[in-house]
Amino acid sequence: MTANVKQVYRITINAPIRKVWDALTRTGEPLPFFFGSVMHTTTLGPGAPIRMRTPDGKFTGVVGEVLEFAPPHRFSHTFKFTSLDDAPCRVTYELVEVDGAVQFTLTSEGITAGTKSEKYMKQGSEFIGATLKALCESGRPTLKQRLMLAMMSATAFTSPKRSRSEHWPLDGRIS
Prior knowledge:
Layout (H helix, E strand, L loop, with lengths): L3 E10 L3 H8 L5 E2 L5 E5 L7 E5 L6 E11 L3 E8 L7 E10 L2 E12 L3 H23 L4 H12 L21
Antiparallel strand pairs: 1-8, 2-3, 3-4, 4-5, 5-6, 6-7, 7-8
Helix pairs in contact: 1-2
């Protein structure tokens, strides 16, 4: 039996909850905190598919299905890296107003222990939280974050063929 891992990342964002929620759930444009990916979906409601694609739409890095959508407090979906054979896990974004700020919590659970997904999710959670914080508080990512995003964009062509978007249509099932 393989153990599952749960990871929790929490950060306080000094911005109104609606601003953080709107940034987190924006579709159709590059989202710096999601590594410059564009969130594609048919609707943000339970059962809807989610695809995180490069801005040019050629590659899909993450696929999933909306599990919960309760504005402006909770958004949850399944999560699978298209470049890996690892099983899907669940990610949940929670926003709670605390003393004029927002406590942002990113919980990843059901990750198979010892997989690349476990490693990537741990590294990615901190970048997502810190970049979302910078974007909501100052209007843009920090210089270090922008440099990382530029480097990722410049190397997008090295994505594996299995991540090409034609393999991950919005009406396709995730296995």
